[in-house]
Structures are given as C-alpha cells and as structure tokens.
Design brief:
Strand content: 15-25%
Strand order of the largest sheet: 2-1-3-4-5
Shape: elongated
Helix content: 40-55%
Number of helices: 8
Low-confidence stretches: 1-14
Number of strands: 12
Mean pLDDT: 88
Radius of gyration: 20 Å
C-alpha cells in the first residue's frame, strides 16, 4: 500500500484532493498509475490483491476505485459485489484485459460505473476518472436533507440541526447517525455499523457502538432514557424511527 507523502494536495477551494484506490496486482502498472495520478494532484492508495483491496475500500473510503478483475485472493467482481452489497457508493472503474461484451455486462450489472480495457491511453483514463468524480461530486452536492422529529441532517454540509440549532457531533457520531438515517425505519446490525463507520480493521466491540448511540441520544432525543427515534432492536442493533 502506498499513499502520497507529506502535505496533502489541495483543491482550489482548500479541501484535500480526492483519494483514489488502485487495486491492481501488476506492480509496474500499479506503481505507474499511482505516480501519474499523484502528478495530477490526486491522493493515491494501492493494493496488490483482492483481500487488501476490499479492506482498504472500507477503511480508507476512497472517492474512486480503479479495480482490476484478475487478482490474487478475491476477484475484482467479488470485490465489486461485496462493495455494493454493503452499501458502498464509491464510483468503481474496472480495468481489465478482458474485452468481451459478456464480461462488461457482468461488471456493469454488479454496479461498476465504467469499464476500460487494457491496454489503454492515459489521457482517456484521466478523462474517464474525472467524469466519474464530477458525477460523484454533483450527487453528493444534491443529497437531500433527512429529517426526523425536530432533527435535520444535512449530508452535504455534514451538519445536524435540532429545533433549528446546530448540534456538534464528532465525525464518527455523524457517520453513525447518517448510516441509520439512510436506513430509516430498518434495523442496522451492530456488526454492520462497526464495519461501515469504523472500518474492517477496527478491533473494537459492540460496546463501542452502544456508547456512541448513548451519546447521540443525549444530544438529539428529548428524553434520552426513553428514546423515540434512535431505537434499540433487540439482538440485532439499532434503527432510526421517523
């Protein structure tokens, strides 16, 4: 795994540049792509096998994933299916030497956003990556607010209001609340919360989730001891009730 060292590149608005994850077992191609994207002011992580690639996909939460199909361990298609099954919305661009129509249909059907056949020209790859990132930025910017009770969640601004007043949440508290809000009315298992909010490499227990739920109730519920919205689902986890 590699990442740009030193100070993170910045976009014109002062925000850190977007993070790409390259999952590719060919070392020369992997390192060449990483270098070229870094020269274009992207941050880059790399993985050389499927298992590491899947872990990085959840732990690092990249803005875009470049995914080879033929990998040691999990295949690219298995990674893609797992990402979408677990709710990852990161754009995925498949890089593959396979150019059959059936292969492309399978990849796109599993949730890939684009498919580039090897060998490819770098300018075309850069253009396709930028198109996917632009679509992702626009989708994030247009995310609707989510409301329950007297609480309003603004996913784009990462802001929470209660009765019109801002509530200060930690990054993990916000991610947990947003995860529950996006599954409004449906139970979310503690194990799923740990994986999606803290990442696969986190070795904490369900007690971590319980403590954060308690904090959210204290900040958002009128009566934290008798929560109306952030509810416990016995032997499963939690749900957000409208």
């Amino acid at each position: 795994m590699t990442e740009t060292a030193g100070k993170l590149p910045r976009l014109p608005n002062g925000q850190p540049s977007e993070l790409l994850l390259i999952i590719e077992d060919d070392r020369s191609l992997r390192e060449g792509l990483a270098m070229n994207f870094q020269l274009r002011d992207y941050r880059v992580l790399t993985a050389s096998d499927g298992d590491e690639g899947l872990r990085q996909s959840f732990d690092a939460r990249p803005d875009l994933i470049l995914l080879d199909l033929m990998l040691p361990g999990m295949s690219g298609l298995e990674i893609l299916a797992e990402l979408r099954e677990r709710g990852s919305r990161a754009p995925v661009l498949i890089l593959s030497a396979r150019d059959t129509t059936a292969q492309k249909i399978e990849g796109l059907g599993l949730g890939a956003d684009d498919y580039v056949t090897k060998p490819f020209e770098l300018p075309e790859l850069f253009a396709r990556v930028e198109v996917l990132l632009r679509r992702s930025r626009e989708a994030i910017a247009s995310q609707p607010r989510i409301a329950f009770g007297h609480v309003v969640i603004d996913p784009t601004a990462r802001q929470v209001l209660r009765s019109g007043q801002e509530v200060v949440l930690s990054a993990k508290e916000f991610d947990l609340l947003l995860l529950l809000a996006r599954s409004m009315g449906r139970p979310v298992a503690r194990e799923t919360i740990l994986e999606q909010v803290w990442g696969w490499s986190y070795d904490g227990t369900a007690r971590t989730v319980n403590n954060f739920i308690l904090s959210l109730r204290q900040k958002l519920e009128s009566d934290p001891a008798r929560p109306r919205h952030i509810q416990t689902v016995r032997q499963v986890g939690y749900k957000l009730a409208p």
